[in-house]
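Entry 14. Ran structure prediction on the chain below.
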Amino acid sequence: MMFPPVTPVVKNLIIINVAVFFGTIFIMGLDGRMIFALYYPASTFFRPFQLITHMFMHANITHLLSNMLGLYFFGSALEMVWGPQRFLQFYLLSGLGALLGHLIYWYFSFHAQGPEMYEVFIHSRISMMGASGCVFGLVVGFGLLFPNNPITLFPIPITFPAKWLVPGYIALALFGGVGIDPGQSNIAHFAHLGGALAGFIMILLWKKF
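Output, structure tokens:
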């Protein structure tokens, strides 16, 4: 996969994510910035604006860097095909799909396990943040629109067609969510699945209409 030119919306999204990451740390501190992460709607820490702001928050520099690289490589190619408006719509709706996927996971992990577990959960600082769900949607979009585009993994020099990204990413998310570490990971696997599913649905709908 060649290095694509940085498209306008991708560039602005990267700037916003980087500015939010460092700005909230310097201005509000590590604890204060958590008000912008997403909490369960019944949580004492939930605020409506978190439905959007959590997509621009990242836990650490590695989290930020990995998502911004994915946004650059996959997002730039998609924006060149769709244009700025449709690309931004796809990106944000993938993020909302990720939100829905994680809310469903939270419900069955805590709310459905009984009142005591639920009470502990809604007063806890358990939250979700990051653009990973948006990026998973971009990965699906790229894999479906450019199925035969060669992808090379770094630092491992393995090259394969982009169409294998979709089942590969979904398999990793499923394995992480229900396999080796169900409920024990800081990674929002079901948010990733929600973003991927939202991206898949949008591609199908846009092809029809």
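The longest strand covers residues 150-153. Will compare against last week's run tomorrow.
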